[in-house]
Amino acid sequence: MKKIHYQLGFGNHFSTEAMVGALPQGQNSPQKLPYDLFTEQLSGASFTTSRKQNLHTWLYRRYPSVLHSDFQPYIAEKWVATSNSPQPPASPTQMRWDPLPYSAEPVDFIDGMITYAYHGDVSQKTGARAMLYAINQSMSTRFFYNSDGELLIVPQEGGLHLRTELGLLDISPGEIAVIPRGIKFQVQLHSSQARGYVCENYGQPFQLPELGPIGANGLANPRDFLVPVAFFEDVQADLTLLTKFQDHFWETKIQHSPLSVAAWHGNYVPYKYDLARFNCINTVSFDHPDPSIFTVLTAPSALPGIANVDFVIFPPRWMVAEHTFRPPYFHRNIMSEFMGLIQGEYDAKVSGFLPFGVSLHNSMSAHGPDKAAFDQATHATLVPKYYKNTLAFMFESYYVWRQTAFALNSPLRQSDYLDCWKGLKIVTK
Length: 429
Description:
- With 429 residues, the chain is mainly beta.
- 4% of the residues lie in helices and 37% in strands.
- It has 3 helices and 28 strands.
- The relative contact order is 0.19.
């Protein structure tokens, strides 16, 4: 596969061209562009948003985006199940699911997406959706853009080749990618199949969390984020463009590839990040800092300091706390936790929580280490220990995750999950 080139940084204003001279100098929209290109601005924030938060990119493309037929309804029932049928009320019961199997039928990124939990209101641009994908087919003649929100993609098995309007991104397990609202793209497989997790964020875009007393360094560093360089293809063919709009899917016919952007500049861009570059902050004395110290990205809500969604990871790291119960202690949070496992074992669950599995602990529902993890931790000799083969994450939200009917009724849901806490008691040795 051809080597892909990237630009460095998070939140920067980038400039790139795939054809020499395609990027205009001195003004954004000249009267006439070279190569018979069209000017198009993509805005990811309101026009009057502050300069610091304003998101927009100027595109210089071979074919303008208005060239398409009428949109017609398209059924993607597992992705937008919450819109097409009545859904049960949110449950406070702690839940866990086994890994989602691959389909025997060919399914791509659109048809292979299944919603497990959601909250908020797409029409009000608040909330999010937590999903899993298990796919075995590349998108070849179909392209997609999401009008409702941005997509945070977390591969668990198999790599993805993301072909976007602004350039190419390759991601593998242990990496993530974010595709902003409205950007057209196509997902192709590195091998025969792939699976992973997706957060569809309807609210404010993901950003780096503030560091506060941590200071200037730590957690995810801006320079470690990668942004594509311009990629251009001039393909004329019978193609399909899909969009998700107000929680329904639509499709239209186009006669050209939407990846015809010869140059662009701006700060509204797709990006990727290697989770191995996350710089963990942790205690070197006793007790636990809150899990917010593991936040990679946060999508703020309208309430200061309150997240619509936090993306939190638990990567390989040293544990050195003295006189301390080291796994996550038993807790009840106002925050609701949708959790997945990318690899290895999560330290609070000795068995039952598998890679590509899911657990959900909603607001104020008690949870914590299972009995086996508790017994081990209360009698362990406390020496410095490196957690090596592990990578778990959470889509954590101030708002309650509502389970879909699929998730509640799925045979993958572990009916005996609550048994993992049975028999908990202090045993003195």
